[in-house]
């Protein structure tokens, strides 16, 4: 298996989790960026994946970056994110913004914000189905499977309902 390079995020994550006595395990695996693909490799359900979207919210005099976390088997309604934050519109951040705010590539963003300008939100549905959440831990070759309650306790995301529903 390849040796996984550390961009610093993995070390920050594991130190944070260890300092808070979290129940978690690390899995090194072949490169995987798509949620379905990495869930199979991890041996987890697709809905256990904690997908992170870096969004740029604007309007009403607001310019804010948000890290929105939701189950990997769901889609985000960006207008709900914008409204909840106090803006009028939201878009996905550019790859350059994602790199600057997370030091990760798309698909490798963990559900934690280590940047003061990146507000962390999570859809409450993330916490209702599984005892463990899985996410890429700063690279496409390394995942962490973390106790769901420990994630919520340590990350303390603001809860915002922003999952897209079919009737919209």
From TrEMBL:
The keyword Ligase applies. Residues 29-153 form the YbaK/aminoacyl-tRNA synthetase-associated domain. It comes from the Bacteria. InterPro entries: PROXY, YbaK/aa-tRNA-synt-asso_dom_sf, YbaK/aa-tRNA-synth-assoc-dom. Keywords: Ligase. The keyword Ligase applies. GO terms for molecular function: aminoacyl-tRNA deacylase activity; ligase activity. This is YbaK/proline--tRNA ligase associated domain protein.
């Amino acid at each position: 298996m390849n040796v996984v390079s550390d961009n610093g995020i993995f070390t920050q994550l594991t130190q944070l989790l260890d300092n808070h006595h979290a129940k978690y395990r690390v899995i090194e695996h072949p490169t995987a960026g798509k949620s379905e693909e990495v869930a199979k490799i991890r041996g987890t359900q697709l809905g256990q994946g904690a997908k992170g979207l870096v969004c740029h919210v604007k309007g009403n005099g607001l310019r804010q970056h948000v890290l929105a976390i939701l189950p990997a088997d769901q889609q985000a309604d960006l207008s709900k994110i914008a409204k909840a934050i106090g803006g009028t519109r939201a878009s996905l951040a550019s790859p350059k913004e994602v790199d600057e705010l997370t030091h990760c590539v798309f698909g490798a963003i963990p559900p934690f914000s280590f940047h003061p300008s990146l507000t962390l939100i999570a859809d409450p549905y993330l916490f209702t189905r599984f005892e463990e959440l899985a996410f890429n831990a700063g690279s496409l070759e390394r995942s962490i499977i973390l106790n769901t309650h420990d994630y919520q306790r340590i990350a303390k995301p603001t809860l915002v309902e922003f999952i897209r529903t079919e009737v919209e």
